[in-house]
Specification:
Blueprint: H1 3-7, E1 11-16, E2 19-23, E3 34-38, E4 44-48, H2 54-60, E5 80-86, E6 92-98, E7 104-112, E8 115-118, E9 128-130, E10 136-140, H3 143-151, E11 156-158, H4 170-175, E12 180-185, H5 189-202, E13 208-213, H6 227-234, H7 236-249, E14 279-281, E15 285-286, E16 290-295, H8 301-314, E17 332-336, H9 341-351, E18 359-360, H10 380-389, E19 393-397, H11 412-429, E20 432-438, H12 456-460, E21 463-469, E22 476-483, E23 491-496, E24 502-508, H13 512-523, H14 528-541, E25 545-547, H15 548-557, H16 562-574, E26 578-583, E27 592-597, H17 623-629
Parallel strand pairs: 10-11, 10-12, 12-13, 16-20, 16-21, 17-18, 17-19, 19-20
Antiparallel strand pairs: 1-2, 2-3, 3-4, 5-6, 6-7, 7-8, 9-11, 14-15, 21-22, 22-23, 23-24, 25-27, 26-27
Length: about 625
Amino acid sequence: MTAQDILHRLQSVRGGRGQWTARCPAHDDRQNSLSVSEGNDRRVLLHCHAGCDVDKITAALGLSPSDLFPDKPRSHDYGTAEREHIYPGGQLKKVMYRKADGSKYGCWFHKSGSAWAKGRGGSPPTLYIAGELSGGVFVCEGEKDVDTIRRLGYNAASGADGAGPGKWRKEYTEQLRGCSVCVFTDNDTVGRAYAAETCNALHGVASSVRLLDIATVWPDIPEHGDVSDMVAALGTDRARSMIRELVTGTPEWTPQEAPDPLFSLFKPLEDFPEEETKWLVPGWIPAGQISVIAADGGIGKTTLWCHIIAALSNGTACILDPPGFTREPMRIMFLTTEDSVRKKLRKKLRLAGATMKNIFTPDFVGDRSGLLHKLKFGSEELEKVLRHFRPALCVFDPIQGFTPPKVNMGSRNEMRDCTAQLITIGEDIDTTALIVCHTNKRKGAYGRDRIADSADIWDIARSVLMAGFTEDQGVRYLSNEKNNYAPLQETILFSIDGDEQIHKEGASWRRDCEYVMGAEQAKSSPVREDCKAFLLNALHEAGGAMPTADLDEKANKAGYSFTAVKRAKQDLKKDGAVKYFQTGGAKSGDKVWHIQALVEQDDGGDFEELPDDTKTPFESPSPSDISKVV
């Protein structure tokens, strides 16, 4: 469909040149909350500033989200044409098709010369009419029912867009001015609300108004049943008799408050399907939801997310996946206000093996108008970009760069409001949001309190990952601190090489709080000096160096805590008493870190060198000396 086709279904349309506003049909809109525009691919873009999602808006218009895409020549996809309805004047018709899978949909056509062309062609909204708009007129929900009533010998009419809040237009009311109107209601919540809205609109304009509920004369009417179903089930004569009974037995309509369209959005649990969680990264990052990576500065947050998106872009495994895991290559987007794409990130992603054509990011250098600065959480611009590119994952680094300037990050309500858009879009188009956050260094803080500036992002996220340093030289951890859809995953240990690439070093069940709190405890440990002496002695006994894992095990067996050993090694390295080196390599799988004690060489001082044959008390006595003693 085109934007004009959509605009004809809306009320209070204003604007032009590709940008319009209108009243949102999905809620009781008293001011133009709906923005309508066309994307570069001619897709119709809808955004309700009151928060209604696209599914609700299109449903209220009698459409589906797929109708927002431009029509393409696809005659083989139309299916079988079941019926067509030509509107007054002969310039507009609706054709109803049924596809092979049983689904139905309607297509609009307008007269273009002597031929029919796709779309409404700018035709204004009008009633579909069978018979005349004079005397008594039955108003039905759709064109099929209108034709059914006409075959019974009555005048009938319907709106052009089916049932739904706001779909009965003022133009329709004027067309029925002075008529005696009976409004049929379909047997469902939406149909009853629409019929009541229609009766309210016609009261005082039509000469009389009645609302006809078929269920009162046909108790066996099925859910969603209508007058056409009644005629098909009971026959023409019986149906005609029941309609006369309905008309004579139904009092005139008394105006009442129209049912709130909000109520129609509630339904019993039996109407909800059960869906399995979909994962972008199995067990770690759920698809279509918000996830968070948080860490102190210098840990390697950017390197981490670059490693993840490189794997997603080329269909390979990242450090969070099991060995040999594969996936289909995905379209990825990242938005960052920190690192330069040209000077840093492109090279980092290339070295990580990323498929460059699958990764999109804005070119801030080419933005002369400042348009990209409007890409904030909750903004129309961000929604437009995400719905256009439809990435499987979008990274936001850092959160402060995309929080609207007037939003207080410490305010729970404000943060929830501005990030709610990501949840709505994510579930609609399966775009996962990965938000990068800094952590604070407040003593004793852990979990949600470790997220800097906004603890509420912890609650909004479905999965939270926290990174930091372990006690081993060059080894970091990535801990799954929160997971709404799976058990917490085992902590991943990793290192970053000279090319800033990620290598998995192992796994652990320690969590972020244990690493952080342990480091705090180790700083004030009274046994730290003893631990340092123990470590140096152990190294000397081992010949000066040994694998760090072996030294840790030896110290733990001696009764020193994990955190005390970590802090003691940090102090020894800072004092220049030890150094670290590695053997093997990550690619060959035999890389091992070692720790070595550094011993100063004796420069001789003021001591005199003795001749070689000088007797010393450290030498073993000769056999002759022993015999002399004996």
